Amino acid sequence: MRTMGSESSMQPLGPGSSGPAVSDVQAALRSLGLLEPGGAGAGASVGPEVYDQATELAVRHFQQVRGLSVDGRVGEETYRALSEARWSLGDRLLHHDPERPVRGDDVTSLQERLLELGYDAGRADGIFGRETEDGLRAFQRDYGLAADGTCGPATLRALRQLGRKVTGGRPQLLRQSASLVDSGPHLIGRRIVVDPGHGGTDPGFTAGETTEADLVLDLARRIEGRLAAAGATVYLTRGRDQDPTPEQRTAFANDARADLFISLHMDAHGSEHARGVASYYYGTGSGTSSTVGERFADLARREVVARTGMLDLGGHPKTWDLLRWTRMPAVRLDCGYLSHPVDRLLLLDARLRGTVASAVLAAVQRLFLPADADPPTGTFVLPQRV
């Protein structure tokens, strides 16, 4: 098992916060038309650098539209998304920098435009990586431009002069699905990263002496054992005393050249009625998504629900950094609510966690099976290796 360290994160901004960082957030919200100009909000009686109710509502709206967690607070992820949202295509030169990748909505617009024209620019994730550079160079060569991989004025003019061309499926989605089929149904040699959430000084939700961090680590180790027994090479992103950042977790998976990334969490909510299992995959909610990630999110959640009887909360597209920065299909699985008395009793039972681990194993195997050999949900049992 490989693990990695952790580093500190920014202090989230919320109601009552003040200072230059709040002013910067408000400026970004105004530029996006989400906050009234001339103050923190319409009719605000506080200074422009105070995080007031209007700012909170604007942040919530922004988070909803961007596929982020909607809590009305600005942490690292929301702050980064606000910064990226300021950029429109044409505001700056775009190129690939392996040390400090260019990120922003202008990159997303470029990627979507190239994909619409039939060029494989990778996932439309707003990160100018090697795949985006390759797609841009191919476009530039085909249209008689200098194939320098930089999106400047000449390339922008060419992109704007061309009509949209939808060709029946974006190339990176077709490639991802075809690669899955061609790779065969076995798990031997597959590299799978299992990411137990929280850890170290971040215990997650705590109920008495029980912490979310400990429970998901136990679950991750159970999944690790089952996948390894089936022939897969499995890596965990952390041990008991570590709490890697999302960037460290995704970089770890990318460096391992993983075939699949599975992040494990257990949820909590103030409502006494909140319970059940949910799954998340990379997607913007407007048609851009990881098709394999969406399929695996659906398989894993339904297998868990079928084998445990827990409530099915569905699968949802999100633009969380943990899902966006991975270069392979990535899924977050929330295995129940520790704040709900029934879910908590189930999750505290080691046998139930073993059942969830078996469900995840079945989902991983089903992901690689051809459609005509895929068994009904809740019935698949991996044959014992001889």
From TrEMBL:
Any Pfam family matching the protein: PG_binding_1
Keywords: Hydrolase
Segments for region (Disordered): 1-22
Residues in MurNAc-LAA domain copies: 250-365
Cellular component terms per the entry's GO annotation: outer membrane-bounded periplasmic space
Keyword Isomerase belongs to the record: no
Ranges of compositional bias, category Polar residues: 1-11
Keyword Hydrolase carried by entry: yes
PANTHER family given in the database record: N-ACETYLMURAMOYL-L-ALANINE AMIDASE, N-ACETYLMURAMOYL-L-ALANINE AMIDASE AMIC
UniProt name for this protein: N-acetylmuramoyl-L-alanine amidase
